C-alpha cells in the first residue's frame, strides 16, 4: 500500500512548459508594454503572497485537524505536507523585495511622510519590517519542518508518543500563526495604502488564504486521481472538501460584506477612500471578484452530489483560485499603481511562471515520501469514513 | 379487519439483516418502526431521497426576492426618505434583512412541509403501534393476507432471523 | 422678516379709520380677512391654546387701555380687532428693571405675550436683548405674584386700600417718611413722584441701586460738573483698558457695550484690524474671559494700579512726576500704548472708590478720549443713586428720625449689606408701604402692600440717555388686581388723571415741541408709540474743562493704603441672576453661568493654586469667617489670595422656584475688600454642572490664531487637517431649493448666553430642576461650550455655541429604526416627535451630543397620569401661557433637538409667498440669531450665492466642527482671532 | 461506522437502549427534589422583582435609570448583548458542531438549545424596556399604515428586530423538531391520563416510522445548515448596532466576527455553568462525561483566544490608524475612570481561559464551574466597557460625563436572571434534558463497551 507518487517526466515537462509560457509572456510585455519597475515589483509581491498563502495553508490544514482530533483527513495528509515544502522558496522570494521597497511602499520614502505616516513610523520602518519578516518565516518554516519530521517518524514506529508530540507542535503552530497571519497582512498588504486601516483586514486575508488553500488541495487531489493514485480517497472525502470550499467561500463573503458595509455605512473619508478608489477605479474587477469567489461557488456547490463529483469540484476550485488571485491583485494594485493599473501580459506571465515553479516543487516533494502515512491512530477511521 | 404481522427486534443489526432478507424474498413491508434513526436503513428499504432540501431552497429564494423587493419598493418607490445622505436604493443596508427573511422562510417552509408530508401535527390521531417502540424495540410490519402458506413462510423467515417476538395484530 | 407692528392704539380711533382698515391691502390682508368677518371659527393651529385663551380666569384678551371696558375671555364670538389667531402681533415697548434697560418688541399670540425681542430701531438695543430680558416674559406668568392689595396680610379692595393709605398719610403728616426707589430714569414717573412729594412735603425721595455707580457719578460731578454716567463708545476705541469693570456682563449697560465692543472685532475681508482689550480683575468675569490680555490682581491693588498708570501717562506727557510707588513693566508699556492711541482708547473702572474714578477721568482727559470714545453730551441715566443717601436713610430709620418707609421695586432687607439693620428698623416703623409685583424679604415686613403691574402690563416712558427716550406700552390687561406705582402716586396725590393720559400730557408739553416732523400731537404720539423710541437733538455744550483738583492729595490717599497678604473677598453679580430680583425665574436659574457652567447655585470661587495649598477640590464645603458654609468651585483665572461669591442667591421669600437656592452673600458686600478666613469642613456638594470637562484635549474644536498671524495668512489656525479628495462611495446630497445653514463668528460670541434663553422661550424647552441637571438630564437645545487653555492660573478662555449642526451625512438619521429623524429637502435635520419611540441611538451616534431626551414627563404631555416631574411649576396653566403655539410640546420618552426654528422658516416662506416673491436674505431670523447682542450667529440660505451667510461660509476663517468625520454639517464656525501684543 | 480506539467513550457504563430511556426520563417522572423547589422560588421572586422594576420604568420613564445625555445606553443594552451572546452557544452546538460531525454534541445539544431560547427571551425584553415609549414599540414593524410610513431599513436596530425574531423562531423550530421523538417516548412511558394526553398532543402523533425518521434526519441536517449562518448573522447584526456608528471605540470593522466569537465564548461558559450542576443533580454523569466538559473547554480556549487576539488587534490598529479620537478612546479604556471594568474584562476574558491549556484543569469540574462564571462576568464587562466607556468620552470634551446604574436597572437585570433560571428549572421537569433518540444512535459507536480505554 505504500506506493510513492512518481513525478513522471511528462508532468515535469508540463510544469516546465507552463513556466516557459510565463517567461515568454513577460518578455512580450517588456517588448510591447514596457512596464515600469512599479508594475514588475507589484507582480513579484502579488505572486509571492499568493503562493506563500497556498503553502501556509498546507501547515495550517494539518495543524488545525490535529488539534480538532478529526480523523477523515489522515489519509490525505501527505498532500498538505507537500504544499508546505514551498515555504523556504517563498521566503527567499519575499526577501527579494528588499530591492523593490521604494516602488511598493510609500512609507519607505522618508520625504513623503505626512503627520499620519510619521505617527506610525515606529511600526512601518524598513529594519523592523524585515526583522518581522524574518521572524515570521523562521517560525513557519521551522514548525512546518518539525510537523513533517513528526509525520515521517510516525511512519516508522507506531509509538503513541509521536501522536501526542504532533498535537503539541500543531497547537504551537496555531498560536504562532493566529498572531502572525494578521501582522503579516498588515505589513505586506495593508501598508500599501499607509493611510487606510481596517481592524478586520487581518482575518479577511486569513480567510482568503484558507479558501484558496482548500481549492488548491482539491485541484492536486483531482490531478493525482486522474493519474491513477489515491484510490483510498472516496466520494466522502471529496464531499467534505467540497463542504469546506462551499462553507468557507460563504464565510469569505460574510467578512468581505461586513468590512465593506460598515465602512460604507459610517462613510468616514479616511476609510471610504480605499473602497472609493476600487469601486470607481475598477468597477468590473470589483464585481467579478465577488462573483468568482462567492456567487459561483455558492450556486455551483449547493446540491449534495455536486460536492461529490470530482470533475465539477475541480472546476469550481479552479474558478475560486482565480477569484482569490484577483482579490489580492485588487488589494495591491490601486495602492501601488494608482489609476493606471490593468491586467496585462506581465501579470499573466508572472503568474504562470510562479505556478510552474510552485507545482514542480510541491509535486517533487510529494514524490519523496509514500503517499499514504502509516501508524496514525485515526488512519482506520479515515478509510471507513461516511458522512 | 386487516391483520398485520409485527416482528419485534432488539438490535438494529438483526433488523437490517431481516429487512434485507425480506426484501430479497419480495415480501411487502408495510412499515418499519424504530426508536431512533437507523443509519443506512433507507438504502436497504430502497426509500427515495426526501425532497425537503428543494422545498427549503425554493422557500429561501422566495424569501430573498420578497425581502429585497419589499425594501427596495418601500425605500425607492413608495415613500423615499432622505436618510443620512445615503442613496434611497442602498444595497448594503438591505442585505442583512434579506438574509434573515430568507432563513425564516426556508426554515418555516421545511418544517411545515415535513409535518404535512408525514401527517404529523397538533392533534394528529396516529395509531401508536406499541408503547415500547419509542423505547428500545424495532418493529417490522408485514401485511398478513388470508392464505396461511404465505403467513407461515414469513413466520419461518422471521424466526430464522431470531426475531425477538412475533405477533399477529388486527387494526380497523 | 417684515415687522408687522401695530400700535395698540388703532382700536380707539374714529370709525372712518375702521373702514379704511378693511379695504384689502395686498394679498396678506386678503388672506387674513377671511378670519376677520368673525364667521369662520378661529382656526388657530394649536387647539389647546385656544382652550387656554378661553381660560376661566377673567382675562380679557382686549389690549389694556384704561377706557376699554373689561371683557370676559370669550371664544371669539366678536373677536377684537388686532387678534388674528395664528398670526403674531408685535408691540414696541421698553424693559425696565431697576437699572436694566432694553428697547424691546413684545411678540403676542392670541392676546398673550410669549416672547421678547430687541427693537432694532433703538441705537442702544440694536435688535438684541440680554438673557434676563428674554426671561422676563416668564415672570409675567409667575404664580407667586401678589394678586391684590393687602393690609397686614389681609386682602382688601383698591378703594378701601386707598382710603386707609390717605388716612395713614394724613396722620403721619408731621413725621418724616422716606420713599425708597431704584434709579428712576422715566421722566413721567419723576414728575409723578414730584407731584406726590409736593402733596406730602414730609416724604423724602431716595434712590438706591444694588450695583451702585455712585463713585462715577460723584467723580463726574467733581471733575466736569456734569451728572449722569459717561456714555462709553467702545466701537470708537482701538485700545480698551478695564480695571475690574465687567462691561460685557453686568456693568452699567452691558447689551449696548457688547454690540459696540464686538463691532471692532468682527474680522472680514475688508476689516483686518481689531481693537485690543486689556483687563485687570480678580475673579474671571465674562469680560475678562474675552480680554486679549488679562492680569489677575487683588481687589485692594486696583486703585494703586490706576494711580501708577496715571503717573506714567503724566510722565510720558512731560509733566512733573508724583511720588507714587514704581509702576510695573506692564503699566509702563500700557501707558506708552495708550498715548499712541490718543483719543482712540478708553479706560474704565468698576471701582467704588471716588479717588480712583477721579483718576480714571484724569487719565481719559489726558488721553483726550472725551467726545471721541467717551461722550458726555448724552450721559447714561440708569444709575443715579448715591450710596451716602442710602446709608443716611438707614441711620435715620434705625434712630427713629424717619417714621415711615415706602418701598417701590427694591428689596434692601435682602440686597443691602446692612439688611439686618433695615429689617429691625422696619419692624418698629409706624407706616410701611411696599409697592412691588412679587413678595420679597422687604415687602413681607411691610404693613401695606400695593401690588405693582408687571412691566408688560404697564404704561411708562424712559430716558436711558439724555435726549433718547423710549415708550413702554402694555401687551396684556393686568392679570391680577394690581395697579401701577405711578397710578397709585397720582391717586394718593389727588390728581385724578390716569397715568397713560399723564404721560401723553407730559410728552405733549416737553417733547412734542422739540420735533418738527408731525404737526398734530396725535399722529406724533401714535408714530412714536409704534416705533418705540424717540430721539431729540442734543445741543452740544461748551468745551470740556477738567476742574482743578488736588491730584496729589488723591494720589496720597490711594498710595498710603498698605497692602495685606490676607485672602480678600469680592462679591459680584452673575450675568444670569444679577441682584436676585429675578431669582424666581426658572429659565434664569437653569441657565448655566457663562464661566463656571453651574446652574441653580452660587459658590466660592478660588484659584487653582490656592485650592491646592488648602487641599480643596470643586464641591468641597468650606466655612467662611466662621459662619457662612458654602461649596467651593476652582475657577481658573481667579487671582491668588482672593475669593469671590455671587450675590442674588439664598433668597428666603421670593416664590417657590428661587426659595433657598444657593447661599446669601450680600451681607458681606462691604466695599473695603474685607479679608476673610477659609476653613475646610466635612461634606461634599453636588453642583448642577452642564459641562464637567474644561479642556479641548488638543483637538481642533475651536480654532484660534493671533491677529498678526491672521493678517499674514487669513487661513491662520484653520489649515492643518489631512484632506481626502473625492473619498465618498456615494455622491453627496444636493438640495435644489434652499439649503438653510448657520455661521457663528467665534470672535463676536462673548458667551453671554442670551441665545440659550431665547431658544428656550421660542421652542418651549422644558425646565428639569437642579436634581435632574446634576444627572446631566438638562434639555437646552443650544449650549455654549467654554474651554480653558494654557496655564491653569492664567487660562485662555474660548466660547463656542453648539446646536444641532443639521448634517447632510447625519449619523443620527442612519440609525433611527423608525425613521423618526430624517432630512428635509431644504437641508434641515427633522425630528418627528410623534414617530419617535426613544431608543436614543441617534443621541449616542451624534458626535456633537446635541440631541436631548425627555427622561421624565416634564411637560404633562404624557398619557400616563401622575408621573409629572415639574419642580418649578412650569406646567401650571398660568405658566403654560408663555408657550409658543407654533412649537409642539414633547412627551416623555421622545428625543428633541434644535430645529433651526423651522416654525420661523415656514413663517418667513409663507410671508414671502403671500407677497408673491422669493425669500430674500435676512427675511428669516432664528431666535438665537435675533437676540444675539453681538450678531455672532447668522442664518441664511447656503444656495443663495449673494447672501451674507454665503460670504461668511466661503471666508478663509470658516471651518466646520469635526469636519474630518464627514458629517457635512450645515453650521459653520469662524476662527477666533486674539489680539495679543507679539 | 468505525471509531478509532484512542477516542474517549462518550457514554459511560455500557447502557442498553431502555436503560438510556430510563436514565434520561428519570428527572421528569420522579418527584422534584427540595433543591428544585428552592431554586424555583428564588428565581421566580427575582423575576417578579424585575417585573416590578420594568413596570416602574414604563410608568416613570427612563429617567429612573442612570443614563444621561452623553451615555444613552448603559446596563439595558449591555444586558441585551450579553443575553443574546449566551443564546448563541445552543445553536452553535446543535448546528455548527453537527455540520462538523463532532459526536460529543449529542448529549448537550438539547439543554443548550433550551438555554438559547430562554436567553433570547431574556434578551428580547431589553430592546422593549429600554425604549422611551415602549407602548409604541410596534412602530418598529413595517405594517401598512394610514400615513404611508415604512420603517428605516438602513437602521441596525431594525435589523436587530428581524434578526432576533428570526433567531428565536428558527431556534424554537429546531429545538422542537428535535424534541418530537423524545416527547413520543415520554408519551409512551408516562402513566397519568392528563400527562399522557398532553404529551400525546405535543408529540404531534409521532410513530417512529422509518420514513418519518428519514425526513426528520434530512430536516435536522438542513435546519442545521441554515441555522449555522444564522448564528453568524444575528450576532454580527447585534455588533452592527455599535459598528455602524461613528463613535471611536464602536466603529471598528472587526466587530462582527469578534462579537460572534465572544458570543460563543460566553454561551459555552453558560452551558458549562448549567450542565456541571444539572449533570450532578439529575445524575447524568454517564451521559455528560468529562470528555464533554473537556471538549467544551477546548472550544472556550479557542474562542477566548480569538477574543483576546481581537482585543490586541483593536488596540494596535487604533494606534496604527493615527486618528486622535480612536487613540484616546482606547487609552481612556485602560486608564480612564472606568479602568476597573477594563481590568476585569481583560483578566476574566483573556488571562483566565489560558489556564485551560493544562489538561488537568480542563477536566477539573470545580475549576470549570468557577471559570465559566468568571468568563460570563468578563464578557458582561466587555460589553459594558465597549458601550459605556466609548460613549462617556468621545469627540467633544464638553459633553463628557459619567454613568452609574440605578437600582431599577440592576433590578431588571436580576429579573431576567430569574426568568432564565426559572424557565430552565421548568424545562428540566417537562422535557428530557438530553436527546434520547440521538444518544441511542451514538451509543453503539462511541458507547463504552465497544472501545478499549487506552491510557491518554
Automatic annotation (TrEMBL), chain A:
Transmembrane segments: 14-32, 44-65, 86-107, 127-147, 168-189, 201-224, 244-267, 279-300, 312-332, 344-366
Keyword Transmembrane on entry: yes
Keywords recorded for this protein, A-Z: Membrane, Transmembrane, Transmembrane helix
Protein name as annotated: Quinol:cytochrome C oxidoreductase
Source organism: Ancylomarina salipaludis
UniProtKB/TrEMBL annotation, chain B:
Transmembrane segments: 52-73, 93-116
Domain of life: Bacteria
InterPro entries for this protein: ActD
Assigned keywords, A-Z: Membrane, Transmembrane, Transmembrane helix
Protein name, entry field: DUF3341 domain-containing protein
Organism field: Ancylomarina salipaludis
From TrEMBL, chain C:
Pfam family, one: Fer4_11
4Fe-4S ferredoxin-type domain location: 740-770, 795-826
InterPro entries the UniProt entry points to: 4Fe4S_Fe-S-bd, Asp_de-COase-like_dom_sf
Region (Disordered): 1-22
Stretches with biased composition (Basic and acidic residues): 7-19
PROSITE patterns assigned: 4FE4S_FER_2
CDD domains reported for this sequence: MopB_CT_PHLH, PsrB
Name of this protein: 4Fe-4S dicluster domain-containing protein
Protein species of origin: Ancylomarina salipaludis
UniProtKB/TrEMBL annotation, chain D:
Keyword Nucleotide-binding applies: no
GO cellular component: plasma membrane
Alphabetized UniProt keyword annotations: Cell membrane, Membrane, Transmembrane, Transmembrane helix
InterPro entries: NrfD-like
Location within or outside the cell: Cell membrane
One Pfam family from the record: NrfD
Residues annotated as transmembrane: 35-59, 79-100, 112-141, 161-179, 219-238, 258-278, 299-319, 339-358, 365-390, 410-431
Keyword Cell membrane on entry: yes
Entry membrane topology: Multi-pass membrane protein
Location (main, coarse): membrane
Coiled-coil region: none
Family note: Belongs to the NrfD family.
Protein name (record): Hydrogenase
